[in-house]
Amino acid sequence: LRSCLLREKTRAGQATHQKCIRRHSFHAIEDTHQVVHHHHRIICSHKIANDIIKISTMKLSISLLAASLATADAGVWGNLRRRLSYEKVATYSPGSQVTDHCAIDRDQRAVEVELARKTNESWQNAQQIYLQGGNSKSYALITLSEPLRSNVAKGTSVTGKNADGNEVAGKMYDTTSSGTVNVKVQYATTDVQDSYVQCQVGALVGEDINLSGCFADGENTINIGGEVYTYTYTAATENKNGRTIAGFSTQLEDKLKNGPGAPYADFEYFRKYYGTSDYADQWVNAAFEGGRTSFTNGNADFSQYGMEGREQIIKKGTAYMNVWMYTIREFEDALDDCKRGCINCNDDPVHAWDEGVCFYSGSLEGQDGAPSGYLLHQLADKRSLDFKTGGPDGTDVDGQSKLNYDLMDEFALGNYQLQSGNCPSARKTKERIAQLMYIPMIQGSIRYAYKVDKLQGGEKEKAEGAAFAAAVLPRVHAANSDAASKIYNNLRVGASSTNHQEVKAAFESVYSQLGLTCADIGGLWNEATNSYYPGMGPCTDASTTKVVTETNSTLAIALGTTFGVLFAVALIAILYMRSREKQGAPVFKAGELEFKTEGGEEEADFN
Fold it and tell me: Is 57 a residue whose pLDDT tops 90?
């Protein structure tokens, strides 16, 4: 606004008045086109003497703006600042700081890098990164030379120095009692994704380790809530992480099975099918160890695979099972905390919702969502190329997937509904999001069923099919257990054979129950021939076929009935006339059917 006034200081006051209002109306929710005009309008309405904006007036106007900001309703301005101050997440505009949450995809990338090396040492590194993290919720575990002098609340400010003597900011990780000597200090994070935190250690290896923003090694001092203490710790081993991909599964028992809004539908599909809350963690660790699972359904014996197959099982399991369900968990958490009809008291739900979007997208997608990530957003874009479901209309073979267009719309809508306290509608939005998030799992299962069956896919392709199936089988099972059995038997680890058509048909039989359509899934596209693979085009929705059939049947019945009635009436009329003739009293008499001849004489027609 200040720059607007500077540029326009020599123009007519009325023109400036209109321009400022037009340019500087805050767009609080771009995706819903809701425009919020607030106290800053006063600056554009200021009476301008002699139709010229003078420098003194500009200064006064800026002062008025500052005053209006200071006296404006704190809740409204807080919301505006919260909504307008953060970098986008793959085109989504978060209403809170979530850069640290988005960074979980850097752990996924680190796991995949170590898996790809295919050595025993690198796999041990990958498993430790999976278990311990390195990029999200970084904290230092320090030992104080004397116990805490008083209780210290979670979030209390902490400051210290790094190895170069520069200040490092943090906060207390937990509420900590007096007398404690081992203290957790979480590092402060910024709103800028590229530099969100400068202490990244955990279980990371090599160049991924970043110590530049960590507290200094050895014996140093630290300020905890205004109290100075001496501490010791080792930066390379005592900088840890409170958010891990493994934790996304192991915490589900507490957060979803026993959560305040339990039971949660999608989580219950998986918990009941596999018979455990931490099914994803068990799946991944069994693959790391080359062992077997002990689920109620959907078991896998990974001793049948070497590193090539297990690599696919692990990296797809971490992203499409661990992260997938925890994304849903964050949306559920937002709904649990939503206060219906309350405009200025839903910041916490919005933050949880933002976290869910972060876990879906990750940080490496950037602000524009360009394909470069490692989590679910990237998967959706990849599968859309295989199934010709790209672009806003879902008919393209390049660009962003229709699924991501749709989900980003739903994410923005849910954010707005939470802010406005429309909790029931936000829940419906969450349910639609969950339905859509199954699409890439179905596409992946169908794709690798075809590759194994028709394109001589080996261990890698078989493992990929098994991984995708494991990420969606519980949902299919809840809709139709027979369909789930067919998919599992064709794609399970160690399947004796794979019939891709049987897999495709089994999925198609439950689309309507999953809230999906044939167009949502698309068909398996062959880029080389610019056509669908034989027999793999998009299906036709049963509901559409039924509507057409019912319409045709209704029309046929209506026409048949009409003509039947007309025929019956005509038949009755003929029989009646013949009956009258036999009685000597015909309906039409000769004298009544006369016409004039050309000569003017009358003659009978029917004598």
Answer: no
Q: What Å distances lie between residue 451 and 443, 456, 459, 518, CA to CA?
A: 12, 6, 11, 20
98, pLDDT greater than 50: yes
* CA distances (Å), origin 204, targets 108, 118, 162, 211, 470: 11, 17, 19, 11, 28
Q: Express each pLDDT in 465-514 by its tens digit.
A: 999 999 999 999 999 999 999 999 999 999 999 999 999 999 999 999 99
Least Cα distance to 295 among 108, 449, 477 occurs for 477
Contact status, residue 488 vs residue 495, Cβ threshold 8 Å = no
Burial code (b: 16+ CB inside 10 Å, e: under 16) for 418-441 equals bbbbbbeebbebbebbbbbbbbbb
CA 287 to CA 306: how far, in whole Å? 10
What is the SS3 assignment for 241-258? ECCCCCHHHHCHHHHHHC
Contact between 172 and 152 (Cβ < 8 Å): yes
Element housing 221 (H / E): strand 218-224
* Cα(357)–Cα(561) distance, integer angstroms: 57
What is the Cα–Cα distance from 108 to 115, expressed in whole angstroms? 11
Cα torsion at 400, 405, 408, 412 (round to 10°)? 140
Instruction: Copy the structure tokens of residue 427.
Output: 């829940």
Residue-level pLDDT at 269: 98
Could you give the angle at the alpha carbon of 255 between the alpha carbons of 253 and 258, nearest 5°?
Answer: 65
Specify the DSSP element, H or E, that contains 224.
strand 218-224
Given the structure tokens 């793959």, which residue do they identify?
90
Q: Which of 122-126, 253-257, 348-352, 559-563 has the lowest mean pLDDT?
A: 559-563
Instruction: Report the helix count and the strand count for the chain, using DSSP H and E.
Output: 25, 13
pLDDT surpasses 60 at 17: no
| Closest-CA residue to 8 (of 52, 67, 74) | 52
Are 92 and 412 in contact by the 8 Å Cβ rule? The answer is yes
Rg (CA), the chain: 35
Distance CA 329, CA 406 (A): 20
Looking at residue 123, its pLDDT comes to 98
pLDDT over 70 at 561, yes or no: no
Which residue is associated with the tokens 């992260």? 323
- Residue pair 539/518 in contact (Cβ under 8 Å)? The answer is yes
Portion of the chain with pLDDT greater than 70, in percent: 75
3-class DSSP string for 38-92: CCCHHHHHCCCHHHECCHHHHHHHHHHHHHHHHHCCHHHHHHHHHHHCCCCECCE
Q: Kindly report the backbone phi and psi dihedral angles of residue 455, in degrees, each rounded to the nearest multiple of 5, phi listed first.
A: -115, 20
**Residue 571, token pair as written in the block:** 């038949």
